[in-house]
Amino acid sequence: MNRYAFGYCMRQSFQSLSRNAWLALLTSGLIAISLVILGGFLLVTTNVNQFIRTLESNVEISVFLEEGVNAGEVENRIRTVEGVAEQTFVSKEEGLENFSRTMGDPTLLRDLEGENNPLPDLIRVRVTAPEQVAVVAEVVEAYPEVELVDYGEELVTRLMLITSRINALFLTLGVLIAFGAVFLIVNIIRLSAVARQEEVVVMKYMGASNGYIRFPFLMEGMVMGWTGTVIAVTVLGIMYSRLSSAFGQDSLILLFQPVTDMERLLPIFLGLMIMGTFMAGFGSLVSIRKYLRV
To answer: Any idea what DSSP says for residue 81?
Structure first.
């Protein structure tokens, strides 16, 4: 196609959009609704995954030491264990003070201070991934300086099971919703093309080539798709900004902080724009294919 034919096809595309403005706006609106549903699900999934990672990061191993051992040496040995992210030493005095504070009365256990303190020194260990908790705990428990290791084995096992099921569920739902959005976009564009099938047939009988006929429809579909994605991204951006601000104020109550990192949000919005635009163009090509066989 030479540049004159290209320019003519572009003019024809925009003239057609102007003549069928209401149909184009309706099509763009329906595409926007499909993408808002998909984008909303992706944003929910992103926040749920962050919430799960927050829970997993709070899993820690409590290492209770034998009486009179050198805690520094034990910490150095633990630091070399693969999978250990950080560790915090809590002396028996700090442990008693923290326990008294949780009881609501700092003076309640004053008689147990000094030599009467029954608590052991403690090292709190956090690992890089929850899957490594059991392995690290087993290694540390074998140290002769360690009296007891506790990490809430049953709770960690349940957490791993729940998170794996949630990830599988959201992955399945995400794939289904994405296919549903693609199906809706293609069929919405198809309805738009069916309304203009006579135009395609006339151009075909007048000797226009298939590429010459396809190009204006491709451009129209992509313009309508792009318009729908802009609407969808704008609506999602405004809604998510307001919801994240509202939830962020109650993050301590809700136990999670909404995702606000643009490095994680931007791919979602860009992906929606690319998907909506090109799926609409693809839908236009599919829709007029059968009319080109006349």
So the answer is: S
Q: CA 229 to CA 227: how far, in whole Å?
A: 5
Domains, the chain, in order of start with CATH, read 3-55+159-293 (no CATH), 60-150 (3.30.70.3040)
pLDDT digits (tens, 9 = 90+) for 124-179: 888 887 778 888 888 888 888 888 888 776 677 777 777 778 878 887 887 887 77
Token pair listed for 211: 């590429």
Which residue do the tokens 């000797």 mark? Answer: 207
Question: Side-chain half-sphere of 59: how many Cα atoms within 13 Å?
Answer: 25
Q: Are 182 and 283 in contact (CB under 8 A)?
A: no
- Residues 245, 247, 250: CA angle, nearest 5 degrees: 115
Strand order in the sheet with 122-127: 84-90, 122-127, 60-65, 146-150
Beta strand ranges found along the chain (DSSP E): 60-65, 84-90, 122-127, 146-150
Q: What is the pTM of this model?
A: 0.68
Strand, helix or coil for residue 120: coil
CB 232 within 8 A of CB 274: no
Cα(141)–Cα(127) distance, integer angstroms: 15
pLDDT bin (cut points 50, 70, 90) of residue 31 is confident
Going along 7-150, which residue ranges are E strands? 60-65, 84-90, 122-127, 146-150
